[in-house]
## 1
Amino acid sequence: MTLTILGSGTSTGVPIIPCQCSVCTSSDPHDKRLRPSVLLEYDGRAVVIDTTPDFRTQALRERMTRLDAVVYTHGHADHIMGLDDTRVFYFRQQVPIPIYADARCMETLRKTFGYIWDGNYPFGGVGKLDPHVIDGPFELWGLTFTPVPVLHGMLPIYGYRIRDVAYVTDVSEIPEPTFPLLEGLDTLIIDGLRPKPHPTHLSLAQALAVVERVKPRRAFLTHIAHDLGHEATNATLPSHVQLAYDGLRLEF
């Protein structure tokens, strides 16, 4: 299995329009961050977690030739607004794209992209989706996706555990009953927004505290704001923790 970080940035992306800070104007490509998403590839299949507004750019950069399913963490704009761009894979594959989300997120997708579910939409090419509402583990081509319930501010959302890898973005609090789902990890990819506290995301110190408690072999921080420069921040982190970056490929 290969996991690729499609985007490691916060909801505005980095650089931020029209910021002129040192990170937004950095020449380091690691400081160019699209909205947060990952691509899993295994056994000839391709599964994306979240379709960001940058999904088209991300798919072109990674030379994606197929898409077999989309799994959603929650229904915020920076995680869903690229859904329409999945239609090119439907046109190519001629199979409705399965999407997996909890009931709240699925309702948001139906409202936001109502024309996709309108069987009589007459105004242009529309993809087809195969929606699945989830509230527990599910299997995709032999790989089990286990939802990891967390809080994004006051909003309950999902991270996901796949084998010994967990992807937990947009989290501000991990409920105590969720911690057993994060035991024995090889790799944890977790929200680490900025140094200062934030009402809906883990700060850098809070993310490091989670890593210290969970004790994965390695950890990568994602959903990164322009407060954290890649090189300078990595120099301060424990040896088994790094900032994620767009295009990072992890082999399992």
## 2
Amino acid sequence: MNSFKVVLSRELNSYFATPLAYVFIVIFLMISGAFTFFMGGFYERGQADLWPFFNFHPWLYLFLVPAISMRLWAEERKSGTIELLMTLPLSLRAIVFGKFFAAWIFTGVALALTFPIWLTVNYLGDPDNGAILAGYLGSWLMAGGFLAIGSCISATTKNQVIAFIISVVICFLFVVSGFNIVLDWFTSWAPGFLVDSVAALSFLTHFNAIAKGVLDFRDLAYFVIVIGGWLLATAIVIDLKKAS
């Protein structure tokens, strides 16, 4: 636990010690607001909910989260500090989880700073705040899924740009696997259970259910499994790279 705290503190300090963190937060807040109030038709809908806000989160995270995760390991490998990090009396598990949770907490801070949108919808109407809270939880879990994927990809390369591009592609596949156009293609030749399996892999399928206020254990478990699986893959990749 102490090792985890050391890595977590180190990574969090590195985020907020540079202006890039604040630039990211400002960009996230500006784009979230623009999508909600302009592209999402927040006022035109005439409904007291934050669906226009949450509806764009998968697409926001698709590019912004890999921009965070690409540096997790690629920067360490390029600068050579990963060798020093591995010689310290820290377990590989503590390092992997510490770096991931630092990035996840940072993303959570950016998400929490959108609270004025929540206040706005409460000022204008009488929303279901339980559903909104569930939407925030689902959004944060989805961001964790994107980060875990990006962490694993970042561990495979020294090049942050390559890590970013590959992460975006893989995350995009996880998002669109629930789209009708994709499922219709599978339906034309694949058995029903395979079509259902592809749909179940989609971030959208599980996030949309949570964002509507339905906290189903299967949706929560899905994100936990995705995060855990990709972090395990990250540890395996780091271990293999260390041995080679």
## 3
Amino acid sequence: MSLLKIRNKIQSIPIIQGGMGVGVSLERLAGAVAKCGGVGSISTADCGYREPDFDKAPEEANLRALKNEIKEANRLSEGHGLIAVNAMVATRQYAEAVKTAVSSGIDAVISGAGLPLELPEYVPEGSALIAPIVSSGRTIKLIARKWERSYKRYPDFVVLEGPKAGGHLGFKEEDLLSGSCPDVFDILKNVIDELKPFVQAAGREIPVFLAGGIWSKEDIQKALSKGAEGVQMATRFIATKECDASTAFKKILINSKKEDVKIIHSPVGMPGRAIETNLIKRLETEKRIPPTKCSRCIKTCNVTDVPFCITHALIEAVKGNIDEGLFFTGSNIDKLTEIVSTKDLIASLGY
């Protein structure tokens, strides 16, 4: 098995497990994926929701939990693969979460849900790999140019999320609804082309990992044949024994069909792909479900007019509460049929 080297970090399989919050991808899933030789990702989004003081002091609870999760994920990985954090630019704790992850020995910081223009400021050179999540060649050009000019830094790798991904999406809602988004392999070619001058300036490769609708061994091989160095997969890792979400959460997704999936308006300010549960149906008729408390998670959130509390909805989802939960998913929900081990899942992909 060939090794994939990114700067000074080595992984043995070309798979990143996508970060899923709140609480879907924490230490158990990330550690299990890394143990198999991939990149296991911990979502920093309100990762302290299990802490006893989360309701009173969410910021402190999140950072404390993040340190513990990174430590435990590294233990579970048994020294294999890489442990990353997925950090959302849209969150108020973005900078603090990234800095905490770096000081805790994280291998990589993967950052999206906004433009991570200042990410190098929080990650000293040589401490951890830095990677933006993008959805177009224009976006990676903008980010890479900013990093080059302001920090004399370049991405260590890039995650390209296509329109079939789950959760928050970097495409216009009308294009997602009409199915008129560009083909992900055309976007991949554009991203690779836009990266060429930065690859030359950096004097090293900048691998691109393709995400969104990746499901099978054949999907991975196609991505590699089109110029990607690897893939990122998220939804498929939900139905694993090690996924940190409740069994009820996993069964709700397993029992859902393609026609149950909707494009929603997220309080983050981006469209998202999620299961049409009772929460979504209520919002369609009531338009707003006023929050009863605030964990101060999103920078742009105004608790007096936000349509619903995304933190509460995601926490209820990870517990399996179909009435109040927001269940993000990718487009391949029909193919999610059983709960397997992470090891068996990765073996089915040819690794």
